[in-house]
Amino acid sequence: MTLTQTLLHVTNFKSPLLATLVPSISAAYAIQTACALPSIALQSEQFYDLSGSLTYLAVTALSLSLPALRARSATPLLPSILAAFRPGGVSPLNWRQVVLSGAVGLWAARCMPSPPQSLPFSGVTTDDRTQLVGTYLFARVRAQGSDSRFDEIKKSPLRFWGAFMMQATWVSLCVMPVVAVNAVPAAAFAGAGLQLTDVLGLGMFAGGLAFEVLADGQKSRWLREKRERKHDEEFMTGGLFGVW
Questions:
Q1: Residue 243: what pLDDT?
Q2: Would residue 208 count as lying in a domain?
Q3: Which end of the chain has less neighbouring CB within 10 Å, N or C?
Q4: What's the pLDDT at 125?
Q5: Where are the alpha helices (DSSP H) in 72-191?
């Protein structure tokens, strides 16, 4: 029995929710522990935010793949995903589960196209757009060199480890709805075509993500201009931040 088969057997609870929830949440804490150990040794917070994004991606992918793995462990995940979109295709996944998981992955990776200069309130330069293509928080801490939140915490191994465990808890709580949806047997979605609620949900996601990407880019520019002493504002009041 391979390691994968062993883990699937150990977590094969009667409840579909527990069978997906337990390994997914366990993975979040395992990944954060693996990232915490070298960070504690180096007293560096450089990869803290990046590890959070990677944990989001890993937990979402795992919760999506578990039904396929349990249905037939020898079946690769990609054919199962493609089968979810084929009319009459037999798949342990439903297209809603695939789309929802993809949306979470998109948000976690910040893989959005660079916003054009013509967008209202954009104020995003070429340097800022470069950051938006990758993971924003990781790019920000790399640019600033450090994160003041960790100036004291990283000196204490226990407190620093606790920060990673808090991040594992935060990711677990935020991704819980996705894990719950991915735990639902695909047969439960049978006969449910595209609904108005699907369109509204995807529209809200697209609008929210665009808003966040623009705000992040504008804040990056504001911080850079403050370091260059182009302004002395204590709080950002322009762009999307100025709307409120």
A1: 67
A2: no
A3: C
A4: 46
A5: 77-83, 95-109, 126-133, 136-144, 157-183
In sequence order, what are the residues at sequence separation of 6 or more whose Cβ sits closer than 8 angstroms to the Cβ of residue 60?
A: 101, 104, 105, 108, 175, 178, 179
> Is residue 116 scored above 60 in pLDDT?
no
Q: What's the token pair of residue 226?
A: 């403050």
Q: Which domain does 21 fall in, by range?
A: 15-186
CA angle, corner 83, sides to 81 and 88, nearest 5? 150
| Exposure class string for 126-144: b at 16+ Cβ within 10 A, else e | eebbebbeebbbbbbbbee
Around 168, how many Cα atoms within 13 Å sit in the side-chain half-sphere? 19
Q: 233 lies in a domain?
A: no
Domain-located, residue 226 = no
Question: For residue 22, how many C-alpha atoms fall within 13 Å in the half-sphere facing its CB?
Answer: 13
Q: Classify each residue of 62-86 as buried b or exposed e, where b means 16 or more C-beta atoms within 10 Å of its C-beta.
A: bbbbbbbbbeeeeeebeebbebbee
Task: Specify the number of domains making up the chain.
Answer: 1
Most confident of 46-50, 101-105, 116-120, 134-138: 101-105
